[in-house]
């Protein structure tokens, strides 16, 4: 009972942080079609740079974040991450006034930088604050906070940014240059007040974190952490199961972002109005919520983390094929159903990859957070593919991704480990 009490408060605080992650991350699905119209982008590939600018920050900043955390500790590091996110949100104000896409991308990169610091601290925190066998269950709880926030963010920003946008898009062709510019300026200005509010809330949350009862976990470099590290290991690179886990995270995040962030554009490519398609990301997140709830009640009581990952990988293969061979709303529904396939991948891969790292847990966690850059790379690959083979057939690129994750779930997570 005392052990349960010892991490109830930290779990609540980290759950609130994961809500912040979700709100900031899953609004990108709405911003992609929004920026394409407001900033007069020519192609879907350009608009997918929204995801790239956001997620590439994880690759660039995750490793430096581990050094920052060594200096600040978890609590101050989380507060700093929130402040950095607030600065990124403020960049949206001049970006909207100038209707400058590159400035918007800069703001997204800064927000992603703050999130990289937060993720580098919070994910290992959740994994090692309790028994490693049940880490996937705890991370699933965090995932619920994340995806509920994503649903809320999509609904709010879908209404603010894409309300009546179908009629606006049709009218733009008939407007003169001055009237068109005025209409687009009004559209761009819709995000100013929301992002000012977001910045204020993030700063207040940072202050609350500093004065909270959130404990700093003991450093992994202490004697206990060193004792759990294999004596022949001198670097995180010497753990093959970690390196394979990094690749698995890279591919998983890539397909997750594709399922959540490209689904609105995909719906539009099928001639579904944006007024309807703007809700599709919420469908993906709803399927993810179902998966997280299942994970909470089944891991590790009924199935292991590795088994859950294998099941999700097989579902990913099946749903990807069905996306391509079906049509219209049915195809969109199977793309959304990939949310179910993706749901337990992060909760399972992360603890499997850091298991047995001992004093290298923080460095290994930074590598795994860097792999979130898959969300920057794979959507761009898809954006290029859709120009060649079409938006529907382009999703076939997800098949090898799910097959590798299936390998990791069955064999990869054990590579290099002693019996």
Automatic annotation (TrEMBL):
Membrane topology type: Multi-pass membrane protein
Keyword annotations of the record: Cell membrane, Membrane, Transmembrane, Transmembrane helix
NCBIfam families to which the protein is assigned, alphabetical: gluP
Places the protein is found: Cell inner membrane
Lineage top rank: taxon: Bacteria
Transmembrane segments: 7-27, 47-65, 77-95, 101-118, 139-162, 192-211, 242-259, 279-299, 306-326, 332-353, 360-382, 394-410
Matches recorded under Gene3D superfamilies: MFS general substrate transporter like domains
Name the UniProt record assigns to this protein: Sugar MFS transporter
The organism of origin for this protein: Chryseolinea lacunae
Domain Major facilitator superfamily (MFS) profile stretches: 10-419
Stored InterPro entries: Glc/Gal_transptr_bac, MFS, MFS_dom, MFS_trans_sf, MFS_TsgA-like
């Amino acid at each position: 009972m005392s052990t349960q009490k010892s991490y109830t408060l930290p779990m609540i605080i980290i759950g609130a942080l994961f809500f912040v992650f979700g709100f900031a991350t899953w609004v990108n699905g709405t911003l992609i079609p929004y920026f394409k119209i407001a900033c007069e982008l020519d192609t879907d590939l350009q608009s997918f740079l929204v995801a790239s600018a956001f997620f590439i920050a994880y690759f660039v900043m995750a490793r430096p974040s581990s050094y920052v955390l060594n200096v600040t500790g978890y609590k101050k590091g989380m507060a700093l991450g929130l402040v950095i996110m607030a600065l990124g949100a403020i960049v949206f104000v001049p970006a909207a006034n100038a209707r400058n896409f590159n400035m918007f991308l800069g703001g997204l990169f800064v927000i992603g930088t703050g999130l990289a610091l937060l993720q580098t601290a919070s994910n290992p925190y959740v994994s090692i604050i309790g028994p490693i066998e049940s880490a996937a269950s705890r991370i699933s709880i965090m995932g619920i906070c994340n995806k509920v926030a994503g649903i809320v963010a999509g609904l709010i920003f879908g209404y603010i940014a894409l309300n009546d946008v179908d009629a606006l898009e049709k009218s733009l062709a008939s407007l003169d240059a001055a009237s068109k510019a005025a209409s687009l300026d009004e559209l761009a200005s819709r995000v100013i007040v929301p992002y000012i509010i977001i910045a204020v809330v993030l700063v207040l949350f940072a202050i609350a974190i500093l004065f909270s009862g959130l404990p700093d976990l003991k450093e992994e470099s202490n004697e206990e952490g060193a004792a759990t590290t294999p004596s022949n290991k001198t670097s995180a690179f010497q753990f093959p199961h970690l390196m394979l886990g990094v690749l698995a995270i890279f591919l998983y995040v890539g397909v997750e972002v594709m399922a959540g962030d490209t689904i609105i554009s995909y719906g539009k490519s099928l001639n579904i109005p944006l007024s309807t398609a703007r809700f599709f990301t919420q469908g993906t997140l709803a399927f993810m919520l179902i998966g997280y709830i299942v994970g909470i009640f089944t891991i590790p009581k009924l199935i292991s983390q590795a088994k859950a990952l294998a099941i999700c990988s097989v579902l990913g293969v099946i749903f990807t094929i069905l996306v391509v061979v079906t049509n219209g709303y049915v195809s969109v529904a199977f793309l959304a159903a990939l949310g179910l396939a993706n749901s337990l991948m992060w909760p399972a891969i992360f603890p499997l990859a850091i298991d047995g790292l001992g004093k290298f847990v923080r460095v290994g966690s930074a590598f795994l957070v860097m792999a979130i850059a898959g969300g920057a790379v794979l959507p761009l690959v898809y954006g290029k593919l859709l120009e060649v083979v079409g938006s529907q057939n382009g999703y076939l690129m997800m098949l090898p991704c799910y097959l590798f994750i299936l390998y990791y779930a069955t064999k990869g997570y054990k590579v290099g480990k002693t019996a």
